Amino acid sequence: MFRRLLIATVTGILAACAVALFRHSMYLLEWLFLSNQSGSLVNAASTLSPWRRAITPALGGFAAGLLLWGWQRLNQQRPHAPTDYMEALDAGEGQFDYGASLVKSLASLLVVASGSAIGREGAMILLAALAASFFAQRFTPKKEWKLWIACGAAAGMASAYHAPLAGSLFIAEILFGTLMLASLGPVVIAAVVALLTTRLLSPGASTLYDVHLSGTLSALDYSLILTMGLLAGVLGPLFMWLMDCSHRLFLRLRLSPPLQLALGGLIVGLLSLLTPKVWGNGYSVVQAFLLAPPLLSVIAGVFICKVLAVLASSGSGAPGGVFTPTLFVGMAMGMLFAKTGGVWFPGTEMAILLGLTGMATLLAATTHAPIMSALMVCEMTGQYSLLPGLLIACVVASVLSRTLRHNSIYGEHTAEHRQIDVSR
Predict the structure, then answer these.
(1) Residue 205 — left, alpha, or beta (φ > 0 → left; ψ -120 to 50 → alpha)?
(2) What is the pLDDT of residue 420?
(3) 361 and 395 Cβ atoms separated by less than 8 Å
(4) CA angle 27–269–209, rounded 5-degree value
């Protein structure tokens, strides 16, 4: 066990470095091609001329698609291992196709840095798992390889979201049955070490989002939190169904990968002419809304455009995750609910409270991981007083969502099925 904890510590450090490498590479590309040094794609889009704002995501998607398509052509006859950590843990012997996985990560870097509405964290977690796997195959027995991939994935999530416990539970809940509970110790160690390493590499705020809530929760607050759980339990399956429909529509076009990703990027670019807030994974918009919730009309407009952008990006096969975009959709959903009922519960604090609840409950409804979802929002914001209410609401959302749609966003489609397969 002491040997495992030592390896888990090394895994956490490697994962944090992999996440930092991707993050700084993204900042470098934004500086080179968008002249943006703020770290916010929304700010970058706001400073561009309309024609550049419209075509930049399309160009990034075309470049990523060309890269994926070229790799497919070069490796058609070669046998392949998994290129995604979920598949590597669920099947096989805990091995990766390193070349294909790195190409997928590079393609994700291109679409993320050019403004596509897809999460950058998916590639970050994949790189963290790759780093862990590379180390494990050289210094650990084969029977432990899956454990170290899981540690790498959890550490990557902890580093990306500043949420080590939620990252550990992400592995435990979503891959329940693949790992024994006794393996959770190294997973937690790797996640915590990754967070500490990230803070050493990038000193700053201790939480991902800066949120200000005062006072204790009342009976009305708890009832509204529970109502949000019911609402998310219905809207979560609807959101997953819309992503499936978008994916099928793109497949029916029978476009080559470069043109398919370029089309998805072009849709995002055109939507950004209405509001630049559709660029990126939604992190900066979530932070701005949580600090000062805007008017109902503003939230509704950004919400509609952002959902369409996420559907276009994910449906076209843009490599990346939908974790952070899901948090944005949930936050906007909760704030819309609060603003709509503003006559009965006015004030910005209620909008922030229900926005946070929407983030947790929609995440629970789409992942079927209620404990991870509730804990993640608390860790990302530091609002641990919300945990009891969020746990109840997330369980309700997860159970209702599972009743309406049996599979979660992970169980129904692995990352390779939802994205352009770079290994075939």
Answers:
(1) beta
(2) 40
(3) no
(4) 45
